[in-house]
What we know:
The complex is a heterodimer of chains A (440) and B (170).
Chain A: H1 2-7, E1 22-23, E2 30-32, H2 34-37, H3 39-50, E3 55-59, E4 68-74, E5 77-83, E6 89-93, E7 108-110, E8 113-115, E9 122-124, E10 129-131, E11 156-160, E12 163-167, H4 175-192, E13 199-201, E14 206-210, H5 214-220, H6 227-230, H7 232-241, H8 256-263, E15 267-270, E16 276-279, H9 294-312, E17 316-320, E18 324-327, E19 330-338, E20 341-351, H10 356-370, H11 377-391, E21 398-400, E22 409-410, E23 416-418, H12 424-438
Antiparallel strand pairs in A: 1-2, 2-21, 3-12, 4-5, 4-7, 5-6, 8-9, 9-10, 11-12, 13-20, 14-20, 15-16, 15-23, 16-17, 17-18, 18-19, 19-20, 22-23
Chain B: H1 10-25, H2 29-33, E1 36-44, E2 59-61, H3 63-75, E3 85-99, E4 105-117, E5 129-143, E6 146-156
Parallel strand pairs in B: 1-6
Antiparallel strand pairs in B: 1-2, 3-4, 4-5, 5-6
Amino acid sequence: MTQEIQRVSPYFSDPAPANALIDDAGGHFRVHARAYTDQAIFDLEQKQVFSRIWVYMGHESEFGKAGDFKTTHIGLQPVIVSRGEDGQIHVMLNRCVHRGAAVCRELRGNTPHFICPYHAWKYSVDGRLQAISGENDPSGYSASFDKPEGLRKVPRVDHYRGFYFASLNPDVVPLADYLGPTARQLIDRKLAQAPEGKITVQGRPFVAVYKGNWKFQSENIIDGYHFMYTHRSFVQLQAKYGDTTGDFGVHKGGSAAEMSKNRNLGNVTGGVHGHGINQKPVVGYDDFFTGAFAGHFSALRDRYGDEELRWVLGMGAGCIFPTFGLIHNQIRVWRPIGPALTEVTIYPYSLNGAPEEFNQGMLRSHERFYGPAGYGAVDDVEVFALNQQGLSASDDAWLIMERGMEKEKRLDSGEIEGLPSSETVHRAFWRQWRRLMNSN
Amino acid sequence: MNDPARTISRTEAEELLYREARLLDTMQLREWLGLYAPDGLYWIPIDETQPAKRTASLVYDDTPSREERVYHLEQLPFPAQNPRSRTVHMVSNIEVLGLDEDGSTRVASSQVIYETRTGDYTQIGLGEISTIVASVEYRLVRLQGVIKIKLKKILLINREMPQGNMTFIV
């Protein structure tokens, strides 16, 4: 195995076999730079990864009524997601079946139908072909015309508690099985923060495009190791300003030492389908029941009990393989554009039934850390570009992902639990990536 | 409404806006803080049609938050400003639109900000000049004889689109 790996050169133009890009022999877990830089690998990912599994499409609150739609992507495939007159969520390719023009040019909105701007073929909001202009003209279609039913439907659409996913693979595993117990637990705990058990996507998202591979974001959102270093300046801001400038009690600890201690609580879990989940019980639990929102938190305590509520209110972050993330009060989606180009969209949400002032406080905290002029996410994006930059030094081809290998354990579910700043979740991601890239 | 003591002329507004541009381009950020009224707001919305409290803005800085922003830029090294940005603010189309209900003077302007990172220009993310284009609206007030900014509202023409590194002051 090791010999075979060493023969792989970053200068080869042929696709590298995925097996050769991960070295997990002899206590190693290392990933080859070509997994992030190679156009042939990127192309293969479209077929082997994005076309075969569940990809996040949107949240139910974005489609409150019939006719609500948004545009998004499954890998490189542009799609429309809409709520039809039937009340169901539909996902279809944003491409007229006639001669291929995009039928929708808006990010989001409400419409009774989509009309292709080229020859005015008309589709219902759920994608059915309603009318062909001049269908019966003398120069129109013959009696034997094989008339399409409508926009190409994405064959599988399902949701877990309002989070909608779609798959281009008709035989994909059921969504609940795909998520697995720990990803479902994270979603359940995020929703448990809301008195009504539901969330609403709030306002407009932050969008960034970075010059790096999409997998850097997948790795980073559940990377417990980088926080104290990449976000060192944020830690220092917290030590100086605390809650006076909008953190809203999200990041606990008045000093770098205290924050570092808190970061080492909890655990990470690598799922069998490549998800990574990072959870910590909350610090300063008793303070929730004396502050401005004591009534709100006391009601949650009555419902969930102290033990579970510590986890509900604690830090929870997840990467649902490959490109869907939960952290803070936000939904994060990223999409591949090229081997070294990725778009990240961060949607804040509010908790249904929580006090208005609480939701507004969380929104200010979101603004302060995650915006393009904020004190956190913009540094991550900068690091993704310097990751890609560094990998051009291709004579040193391997990235090391071996933190905490000795201290992880396999759960009955098949998931692997590791320590908070270990790379257990990264290894789970890459094992699933290799499985998909190698499968037929 | 026509109290001449409170009216701010176009020349006075121009002087303030040009001064602000120079302070930002020369990184005299403490002096920039001094241009604002105590209740001043530095705001870059994404969706200006919604109340700022209920939607995320790119920047929504009151006085404590502006001070934090300047402290962050001046005192703490962080990846997105290492190496540093260098900027030039171009300010034009300055027009006094009239008095607001609260007595502040509404001033319109068009601004183009060119920004680049210093450092090794051969590297990804460096070596490019980015352009920010915006309609910038001000509310100006005269406090003890000195004109101060009560509001700087920056409407980027691409505010719904992906934004790059905006960790310098726009």
